[in-house]
Amino acid sequence: MERSNTLGRFFCLISLDPNHDILKTKINQILNEYKTEISRIEKGSLDDFKNIEEGLIISRAYIKKLRLLLRKRKFRTKNDEIEFFKEQKPFINSYIKFYSKLYRFLLKKPKGSLQKQRAYIDEEIEKLQEDYKKNLDFVKYYRENSTYLDQYYFLRGKDEVRLITDTSHYLTDEEFSTSHDNLVAKIKAFDLLVSHYEKLLEELRFKENNVEQGVKIQNSCSNENLQWTASKTDLVELIYALNASNVIDNGNLDIKRIATLCEKMFNVKLGNFYKTYSEIKSRKNNRTTFLDKLKISLEQKMDFDDSEY
After folding, report:
1. Which of 124, 161, 234, 239 could covalently link to 230 via disulfide, CB atoms 3.0 to 4.6 Å apart?
2. Is the per-residue pLDDT at 285 higher than 70?
3. Is the pTM of the predicted complex or chain greater than 0.85?
4. Residue 216 is assigned to a structural domain of this protein
5. Angle at 178 between CA 172 and CA 182, to 5 degrees
């Protein structure tokens, strides 16, 4: 009787298909490894061709790992297969599309004015949106987390011709593709690209604002014949103090820009102010003589003003 129960449990375990757990575990392992790799790429500059190329190579390598894995093992349930083709494979595939688009974007990116660069990005976003509109019904289905058509969209060999809008599906590997997993990857890539382009536009707007502020200061100063009557070294000391304290534009204006504005404001040429700063740092006794002088002068004025009352 005991032997019979043991055999029953044994055959029950076999019927559960051990491939299921192994497949799911290996898919998750591949995805986690990929996320680690891609997070390293994302920390680098996406204006660097080498960085983008590396991201593309890594993404293609991990898609290949998934493809080879599915050749060896089978999904235990339809839900597992749907999850893979609806979320897991498109996650990696979306980055392949993202890096491919970004590579072409950089190749064609103009080197001209900020306005010209902004117009180029706006044009690229418009192209994305036009392509996005071609599959609005499916986009709505996916965005709303609908599931009632998943058996047609995300199971292999369950194609419904009337539901297929992306004809490139007919040219794909039927063992590693469904009718709509590529469209999901396009949606995810769209989100990645739009987010990146919006970030670039924000950076351009920031630069434009800095330029406008600089022009306003320059125009204001051009109407005044201001002269810096202390030494150039004193002015360099003041410039570096302003930069170090982040009191101009929250520290977003670099030292060269501050120096240029001060030169125009006070009609002075500072020359190699980096070298002057090195000389200031090498002072043996008090390295902030001008700032200390300003502090003393202000305190003396306060004392004098107080004595007047």
Report:
1. 234
2. yes
3. no
4. no
5. 70
The helices-and-strands tally (H runs, E runs) of the chain is: 13, 0
Residue 260 belongs to some domain of the structure? yes
Is 270 domain-assigned? yes
Helical residues (DSSP H) of 223-288, grouped into ranges: 232-244, 255-266, 273-281
Closest CA to 83 of 188, 181, 179: 181
Interatomic CA distance for residues 203 and 84, integer angstroms: 37
Look at residue 166 in the predicted model and tell me its pLDDT.
59
Residues in CB range of 84: below 8 A, 6 or more apart: 27, 75
Please, are residues 75 and 84 in contact by the beta-carbon 8 Å criterion? yes
Q: How confident is the model at residue 250 (pLDDT cuts 50, 70, 90)?
A: confident
Task: Name the residue range of residue 36's domain.
Answer: 2-209
Do 23 and 82 belong together in one domain? yes
Which of the four pLDDT bands, split at 50, 70 and 90, describes residue 171? low
pLDDT of residue 231: 92
Pair (197, 235) in one structural domain: no
The per-residue pLDDT for 15 is 45
Exposed / middle / buried, residue 165 (Cβ in 10 Å: 0-12, 13-18, 19+) = middle
Q: Are 256 and 250 in contact (CB under 8 A)?
A: no
Instruction: Tell whether 236 and 149 lie within a shared domain.
Output: no
Of 47-51, 180-184, 265-269, give the lowest mean pLDDT range.
265-269
Count up the domains in the chain and report the number: 2
Query: In angstroms, rounded to a whole number, what is the distance separating the alpha carbons of residues 147 and 154?
Result: 10
When comparing pLDDT for 12 and 61, which is higher? 61
Beta-carbon contacts of 291 under 8 Å, excluding residues fewer than 6 positions away, are: 237, 238, 241
